[in-house]
Each structure stands twice: as structure tokens, then as C-alpha cells.
Protein 1
Amino acid sequence: MEGRELAPGEKEENVILEFRPQPTREMIVARLWSHWQEGDKSLLSFAAVTDDPPAEIAAAGQDRCIIPIKPANVDAWLHPQVAT
């Protein structure tokens, strides 16, 4: 995290990062959903779509970043035009 080698005897620590965009606003996130069914067992799952992070997030040690969707693009994300 600090971009340095650990000192002798020093152990790695988990770091919790919290990003607070300014101004505060709701965030719409690109996700892909799936429904798995096997016999009588059912599983709903989703994954957030990620990309390379912006510089300030990469500098904090993250190698991926979720992709926010602008409110004006929500309909296009939910109802894409399929080329035939």
C-alpha cells in the first residue's frame, strides 16, 4: 500500500479503502445477472462489470474498478440494440 518493502518482522496488513465521490450521488453500476437451475436447486447471481481503474484508484492499490452508468444511458444498457 505504501509502495515500500516491509521492514524485518513487519507483516502485511489488510487495508480498507473507502471512496466518497463529491458531490455525493447515487451510483448506477453495470452488472450481469444469471439464474442457475439444477433440479430443485436455484441460484441467482450477478457480477459487477469492471475495467482498469482511474489513476487515483490505481494509486490506492486497486487493479480494477466498477463501471458506473450515467443515468442517460440506463435504457441503452437495459435494452441494447442487437445488430442482425
Protein 2
Amino acid sequence: MKSFENIVEETALISQRFEINLEKGQDLLQQITAKLDQRIQQAESLCTKLEQLSHRNTEKPVVRHSPSAAPRPQRTDRQKIFLLAGKGLDASEISKNLKRPVGEVELILNLQRIAS
């Protein structure tokens, strides 16, 4: 009988240790799963950003200017055009003032009207 009691006690002890190890293993698996989920989200985010950048690069046409072509107006030039037009100057006056082709000034003003 004493031997049977010892076996039951040892079995209970082994069972408790096994349960503790099992819980530790489950906790460890949950931590690993959480880290993997986080890494997957980061990877998906990076893939999305890469796809967006890829689409931007393929959507933008490559414009090559010949050396004799007039340089594109910078943003400040457009702002100056809008400012002078707001003061009542017409395209030819703005053109002379900013030393830009009249057609370019007219185009910028027309695009602004369409966008408004």
C-alpha cells in the first residue's frame, strides 16, 4: 500500500511539472506568434510602400528636355504669375515682367482656372 501511495505522489508531482512546462511552452508559443504577427505586418507595410513607389515610378513619364528648351517654371514662378494676374496684369505683361514666354504664362493661368 505504501508503495502505491508513493507511486501516486510521484505521478502527481510529474503531472504538476508537466503542466507547468506545458504552460511555459504555451506562453512561449504565444510570444513567438505575436512577434511573427508583428513582423508580418511590418513586411506587408513595406510591400505596400514598395508597390506605391513602384507605381509612382512607372506612372511618371520621363521628360527629356533638349538643351535649347526653356527651363520649366519653378513653383515660385507660378506663384508670381498668379500674384501678378491677381493684380490685374494680362499674360503678355506678366510674360515681360518675368521673362517667360507668353504661351507658358497663358497655359499656367488656364490650368489654374480649370483647377479652380
Protein 3
Amino acid sequence: MKPTRYWISFLFLLVWIGPGLSARAADRMRAGQWVGTTIVGGTTHETSSCMSQSDADAMNGDAPAVKAYLETIIPRQICALTDVKAVGNQIIYTASCRGGGGVNTTKTVTTTYFGDRSEGTDSLGGKTQARLVGACK
């Protein structure tokens, strides 16, 4: 009789705790100071940004949450974001951007997140990488 009660308790804990563990394992980003580089057209740009907990929560969310957050840092008048997908540790979207001299570009951006670092590419040859360096400054 006792072994059955222990198994039921174990299964209850697994069902109750399991979703919390898998949700944490799926975090794409953590809050804090992120630094990195973006390479566009052969030119390297240094980047640095503070990700608040609410920013990180949005980036760890579903596609609508990710799109809403991205639209706060990429103004719609500069780039229109479409086809936003948040699958596992990847964010994929299409950006149609206004360029200088009236030249518009459309690119697909794919970024893979590892909690404390990220790597990305776009369909026009751009590359990004970033890493978490600690608390926001």
C-alpha cells in the first residue's frame, strides 16, 4: 500500500513542478546588461543594452509578446515587422525597412538565444552576437 502512495506523491510533484522547470529551461534571454557586435555590410558596430526583467519576459514569451517588444525598439516608421515566430530558443521575423536615399530592404532575421548569449543572421548577410555581462549599468 505504501509504495502506491509514494508513486502518487511522486507523480503529483512531477506534474506540479515539471511545467515550472520546463518554462525556465525555455528562457531565451535573462535580464541584465548585454554587449555584442552587429556586422552589416562589412562594418562592425558595438552594441550594449540593458534588458529589464519585463524586456526579458517579453523576449521569452510567445510571438505576439516578442513582436510587441521588438516594435518598442525598432520603430514602425523605420521597419515593419511581419511573420514573427518564437519557436524554442529561436526568434525569426521579416523586417521591411526604409533605407537612406529611398532604398527599401526586406530581410529575414533569425536569432538563436542561449539564456546568456545569442547569435543571429539575416538574409542580407548581416550577423549579430551578444552576451550577458552582468547587472544593468
